[in-house]
Amino acid sequence: MPKMSAKSTQTLAKIFIWGSGFITVLILFLIIGYVLARGLPQLSLSFLFSAPQGGTSGEGGISTAIVSTIYIVMLTIAILIIPGIGAAIYLSEYAKDNWLTRIIRYGVDTLAGVPSIVFGLFGFVIFVTALQFRFSILSGALTLVCLLLPTLIRTSEEAIKAVPRSHREAALALGSTKWQAIWHVVLPAAMPGIATGIILCIGRIVGETACLYVTMGGSSAMPTSLLSGGRTLSLHLFYLATETNAMSKAMATAAVVIIVILVINTIINWLTHRFQARMYGGA
Amino acid sequence: MDPKIESKHLNFYYGKLHALKNVTLNIREKQITALIGPSGCGKSTFLRTLNRMNDIIPGARIEGEVLLDKQNIYERSVDVVELRKRVGMVFQQPNPFPKSIFENVAFGPKMLGLSHKLNLDEVVEKSLRAAALWGEVKDNLHKSGLALSGGQQQRLCIARVLAVEPEVILMDEPCSALDPASTLKIEELMQDLTKNYTIVIVTHNMLQAARVSEWTGFFLLGEMIEYGKTVDIFSRPQDKRTEDYITGRFG
Fold first, then answer.
1. Rounded Cα gap, residues A89 and B50, in angstroms
2. Per the CB < 8 Å rule, is A170 touching B82?
3. Helices (DSSP H) in chain B: which residue ranges?
């Protein structure tokens, strides 16, 4: 086979790489575009602010699903943050490299790859049944905490490790204790990375269905306490798609889910940039 | 005059690597001592034994003594936080925190719990003046320390050290990342600082050692080969290896 010239290899590589990028973006726009095109015309204030009828009719709006989603996101993140970031600090700053920490890391990595329905079953057995939280927002949130801890630990650990050693040394050399160096220097510098980890988690909470299906129940009523059942937007979508013929309502709900995720990402990106600009940039 | 710091038969190991071999050296108070030698000769390692910065390296081990005002800093009773308050350090790469200029300088006093006793505004101004940076930044104290030029950043790091009022300042190649004009400023600043501080500087730059220091120690392969008055080391070195190094035959 004649050898290709360096120039034609380069052209080929370019076509291939551009093509890959193009296909990725195309798929993204096709999906989002399709859902938005079919869903947006169905959206109305009454859809957003009225409760779903439940059952197999698929009638009604999504107000209770929106409220359930907000509750579950806030509760999960509130419970998740301290152990997640705490474990990341332990692994990156305190843990010595020995068999115990290797097992912890291995465990964290393995957990991150376990399908969410397995966590759902675990949550069902522990939180719903044994601890008698029943099908509730609390059971759902606790299950999600188990599901997301590995993600938050790993992303936070990477963010903390990325803080240059010189910052730590400078703090220690000024007579600060190790904890002061971590709290006042390392964590603030790692904040953008940790925030990214939290966004990832929020995105997964909003998108999760399998493990909530078996821990939150699927009540379409307005949640009144942490022990109420409920359905998040995604879960509602799942019910609409599998138990009703209300495809247009499902598309409208899907459009809301996509918009919510876009808004969350935009807000957090903006916060992160502002935070970084304040620390590294000018004024 | 008693030396400010004495190291006695100091040996240092990184795991199996014997990085410092039996180093005995006296550092005089309120003077500048320069440590020179080729890369990997142990001069930075030696510097970092003086405020126990090597403690944080896994697998590091030390034998021998380092006396600060006659007290062995490696004794069990010594509080390493207290030690580092007395022996400050300036690093090779300027490393301001990603915080404002003010917060950078106020960091040490705050961490040491002095902020209620001191007027932080005064401490910050005094330290920035002493580091010859006040005039350039006084209107922008709330700008990020990282927005400054490299030379300004290094002076900010010096101000940050001065704010905790140490007795000794260790400088690990403080000018190697700076341009000549900034280097000159730092060197002038060092001369000023000897009124109040004992300075130990590690440098690659022999001319810098000759310009700024009263005392010079030459390190090679973990050993301290020769130590004496800077003028003597540079004009009539006793050891052949010192002579070879300062005349540029290796390194």
1. 28
2. no
3. 43-49, 80-86, 101-111, 120-130, 134-137, 150-162, 180-193, 206-212, 230-235, 240-246
Owning domain of residue B140: 5-246
Cβ contacts of A175 within 8 Å, gap of 6 or more:
B81, B82, B84, B85, B108, B111, B112, B164
Domain ranges of chain A: 55-280
Would you give the distance in Å from CA A53 to the centre of its chain? 28
Q: Which residues of A touch B97 (CB under 8 A)?
A: 167, 170-171, 185, 189
- Distance between B98 CA and the closest CA of chain A, angstroms: 5
Contact criterion met (CB < 8 Å) for A169 and B85: no
Entry field: residues in chain A: 283
* Residue B56 burial class via C-beta count within 10 angstroms: exposed 0-12, middle 13-18, buried 19 and up: middle
Q: Distance of CA A117 to CAs A109, B65, B193, Å? A: 17, 60, 66
Which tens digits make up the pLDDT trace of B74-130? Answer: 988 889 988 999 999 999 989 999 889 999 999 999 888 877 777 889 999 999 998
Sole residue written with tokens 């440098």: B203
**Candidates A96, A169, A185; nearest CB to B91:** A169
Residues A89-131: pLDDT tens digits?
999 988 888 888 888 888 888 888 889 999 999 999 999 888 9
Stated pTM of the model = 0.80
Top residue of A174, A176, A184, A186 to mutate, by most chain B CBs within 10 Å, is A174
C-alpha count within 13 angstroms, C-beta hemisphere, residue B73: 27
**pLDDT tens track for B92-104:** 989 999 889 999 9
Q: Which helix (H) or strand (E) holds B199?
A: strand B198-202
Residue B251 lies in a domain: no
CA–CA dist A270, A188 (Å, integer): 17
8 Å CB contact of B89 and A185: no
Superfamily of domain A55-280: MetI-like (1.10.3720.10)
Q: What is the DSSP letter of A162?
A: T
CB atoms inside a 10 Å sphere around CB B134: 17
Q: In the 8-state DSSP scheme, what is residue A2?
A: P
Indicate if the pLDDT at residue A282 is higher than 50. no
CATH number for B57: 3.40.50.300
Per-residue model confidence as pLDDT tens digits over A242-269: 888 778 888 888 899 888 888 888 887 7
* Cβ-based neighbours of A232, under 8 Å, separated by 6 or more: A65, A68, A69, A72, A140, A205, A206, A208, A209, A212, A216
DSSP, residue by residue, B27-93? E-TTSEEEEE-STTSSHHHHHHHTTTGGGGSTTEEEEEEEEETTEETTSTT--HHHHHHHEEEE-SS
